[in-house]
Design goal:
CATH class: Mainly Beta
Number of domains: 1
CATH architecture: Sandwich
CATH superfamily: Cupredoxins -  blue copper proteins
Helix content: under 10%
Strand order of the largest sheet: 2-1-3-4
Number of helices: 1
Strand content: 15-25%
């Protein structure tokens, strides 16, 4: 099964990004835009970093350097995985 890693700015970004990814098959489940009725109109307003889609047997790498300390949620946006496949990156100075 395929997977990716998408780092979002805030907990509130998980749901909108995950939902938008459901219809983003052509771009490896990384949505280019969110629903126009959403608070943010562009996906880049919510995503800090995203890996390529890793297919079975493949390895992908994602390098992410945050600008500040804090907690950064990450999700897998492949085909609805975001509801269960989540984690948090804790960055301290």
């Amino acid at each position: 099964m395929s997977h990716n890693v998408v780092v979002v700015k805030d907990e509130a970004d998980i749901q909108p990004v995950g939902i938008a990814a459901l219809s983003a098959m052509a771009s490896d489940f990384i949505p280019e835009t969110l629903n126009p009725t959403a608070y943010f109109s562009q996906e880049q307003d919510r995503i800090l970093a995203a890996s390529a889609l890793a297919y079975p047997g493949e390895t992908v790498f994602l390098e992410f350097t945050p600008d500040t300390s804090g907690v950064f949620p990450y999700i897998c946006t492949y085909s609805g995985h975001f509801t269960m496949m989540q984690g948090r990156i804790h960055v301290e100075e």
